[in-house]
Amino acid sequence: MARIGCFLDVENITHGPQLSALVKFHHAAMEQGHSFEFLFKDDIDYVPEFDAIFIRATTDPRNATYAVSRLAELHGLKVIDDSKSIAICCNKVHVYKLMLKHRVQIPETYFLEKEDLGEKRIEKIFDELGRPVVLKAPTTNFSKHVEKAGTTGKFMRVAKRFFRRSDVIVVQKYIPTEFDWRVGILDNRIIFGAKYHMVNNYWKIRKTNGGKVFWGNIECVNAKHIPDNIAKIALEATHCIGNGLYGVDIKAIGNKVYVVEVNDNPSIDAGYEDQANPELYSKIIKYLVS
Q1: Fold for the domain defined by 109-173
Q2: In terms of DSSP bridges, do strands 3-7 and 35-39 run parallel, antiparallel, or are they unpaired?
Q3: What residues contact 88, with CB distance under 8 A and at least 6 apart?
Q4: With contact defined as beta carbons under 8 Å apart, do 244 and 177 qualify?
Q5: Cα separation of 252 and 193, whole Å?
Q6: CATH 3.40.50.2300: which residues of the chain?
Q7: How far is 35 from 1, CA to CA, in rounded Å?
Q8: Angle CA(67)–CA(190)–CA(104) in degrees, nearest 5?
Q9: What stretch(es) of the chain map to CATH 3.30.1490.20?
Q10: Using alpha carbons only, how large is the chain's radius of gyration in Å?
Q11: What is the pLDDT of residues 210-264, one digit of tens each?
Q12: Which fold has domain 3-82?
């Protein structure tokens, strides 16, 4: 019997579908003869006592999740997410440069440095990428700090705000789609698929209005039914990073496909990502104890 530690933060306990997913992970572990115990920040010292660690808190190289991952690795434990994946996936500049290096198709992209920001530079970017463009701060999640700009003034305002977070920001060609593909990959194998639809009359899957958060619909797809070109580019993207658990976001325009994000610690919410792939819980547990 293996002892699996699941590292959480308080947010994971208050969100219903995430809590239900954690219960399903617990059941999957028990069915395979393993224990599944929850850990919080005050429990980090106990990490070496486990056989494997599963992180289900928002990852960041600057928070406790990275410390948990490194501690687990130092003691020879299997861990999701591994520290290398956290370091790469939590910085869009790292991800996109890695995709370019390995010739994985991404939207046309500029890496804009703070000292290069100016009206002439912005106009050149518009000339090459069209209007609007998408600006992204390197460290962001759930579509936060991702904005469109179609004028020099808007571009300048957004860029200056993002440069408070980083010396380099990402500027990409805007590719409008009704949905983004999300492909879940574990150990270089696809374990789930979904279509993340945009919020009605909006260009992102998440919208904040008046303090309320709205999400687009999620359409689940069995892993075996994901189109070949989507599956192929998703696997190419994660192969550049590692063999852990990832969620690859892809835009498809006709026969052309583009990787727009590679996420470690992808969302797995009961009734959503698992709807067409209920076996994903047992697959992740098996990987942790292998």
Answers
A1: Dna Ligase; domain 1 (3.30.1490)
A2: parallel
A3: 94, 95, 98, 241, 262, 264
A4: no
A5: 14
A6: 3-82
A7: 7
A8: 80
A9: 109-173
A10: 19
A11: 888 899 999 999 999 999 999 999 999 999 999 999 999 999 999 999 999 999 9
A12: Rossmann fold (3.40.50)
**Distance of alpha carbon 205 from its chain centroid, rounded?**
13
CB 256 within 8 A of CB 91: no
Instruction: Please provide the DSSP assignment of the chain as one string.
Output: --EEEEE--HHHHHSHHHHHHHHHHHHHHHHTT-EEEEE-GGGGGGGGGSSEEEE-S---TTSHHHHHHHHHHHTT-EEES-HHHHHHHT-HHHHHHHHHHTT-----EEEEEGGG-SHHHHHHHHHHH-SSEEEE-SS--TTTTEEEE-SHHHHHHHHHHHTTT-SEEEEEE----SEEEEEEEETTEEEEEEEEEPPTTSSSSEEEETTEEEE--EEEE-GGGS-HHHHHHHHHHHHTT-SSEEEEEEEEETTEEEEEEEEES----TTTTTTT-TTHHHHHHHHHH-
Please, where in the chain does CATH 3.30.470.20 lie? 89-104+176-276
Rounded to two decimals, what is the model's pTM? 0.95
Give me the helix-helix angle, 280-289 and 16-31, nearest 10°: 60
| Cβ atoms of residues 125 and 107 within 8 Å | no
Q: Are 276 and 193 in contact (CB under 8 A)?
A: yes
Q: Which residue has the tokens 């912005």?
A: 122
For 16-58, the pLDDT digits (tens) are: 899 999 999 999 999 999 999 999 999 999 999 999 999 999 9
Measured in residues, the chain has a length of 290
Token look-up 């003034």 returns 153
Q: What is the CATH number of domain 89-104+176-276?
A: 3.30.470.20
> Which sign, positive or negative, has the C-alpha torsion 135, 137, 143, 144?
negative
Contact 105, 148 (CB under 8 A): no
